[in-house]
Amino acid sequence: xxxxxxxxxxxxxxxxxxxxxxxxxxxxxxxxxxxxxxxxxxxxxxxxxxxxxxxxxxxxxxxxxxxxxxxxxxxxxxxxxxxxxxxxxxxxxxxxxxxxxxxxxxxxxxxxxxxxxxxxxxxxxxxxxxxxxxxxxxxxxxxxxxxxxxxxxxxxxxxxxxxxxxxxxxxxxxxxxxxxxxxxxxxxxxxxxxxxxxxxxxxxxxxxxxxxxxxxxxxxxxxxxxxxxxxxxxxxxxxxxxxxxxxxxxxxxxxxxxxxxxxxxxxxxxxxxxxxxxxxxxxxxxxxxxxxxxxxxxxxxxxxxxxxxxxxxxxxxxxxxxxxxxxxxxxxxxxxxxx
Length: 339
Fold this sequence. Notes:
Layout (H helix, E strand, L loop, with lengths): L1 H12 L4 H21 L2 H18 L5 H13 L3 E4 L3 E7 L2 E6 L2 E4 L5 E8 L3 E11 L5 E12 L2 H6 L4 H19 L2 H6 L1 H16 L4 E12 L2 H43 L1 H16 L10 H6 L3 H16 L19
Antiparallel strand pairs: 1-4, 2-3, 2-5, 6-7, 7-8
């Protein structure tokens, strides 16, 4: 309407000039396109309006072209829209949903049409948390998690929920709190993947009605109270010590069983027992300066009497050898005193 009124005023006051009209329309279209592409149409609109008002005040013929150009640019600029490759534009006509506009440059009717929202259909990441939430065994924990989701139906995302990104975040936080209350602390710490899968399933069922799908939920961190953390550390240390003692006792039992089996074999075969005893003595004497103490009962049982006789015989040989004669004392010197 402003463009038509301006054009009528121009033709009624000044002589009809086709070149001026063509220049006005062409300049307006080019200016509108530049406004939409550069996304600075607010500045251009304000500048064009100021130029138009100044032109009407001065009523100079040479300024009418600039005036009409600014008026047309104000009307045409909102009608040129651009959707990026990952976006879909929800178009409303007289307040009713008409269609989804695909990526690229498209035009709408000013005043009549309106792009309600450009919906980003890329995968999004939303972080959420649950603070001081009680587990099934009444332990307060703080849990941080992230959700990967995307809009698969832009029409539902525009029409069914006002702020779908905020709705996803709040729904994820609620699902996380409910999941924590169903699990004990040990289950939360050891089964993070399972907890994330449960939250993802609940969240996906809720957001599907909004045209949104939740691909996965990951548990980033589980923070427990400091005192409980120290107690769990001591418990884990005691458990490891208990396991080590059990392993040591099991080894002792197995060794005792092996000794029992060996004793049965040695009982029926004294020669094998004697060879085993000799081998033990040999292994002990391999090291220099070693001393072996054998109980007297074991000497007879293991057949070590011959070894004792050899030892005594060696000692006797050393005793029977005559010691060397001591050196004769020197003769006293002859006295020079005469009787």
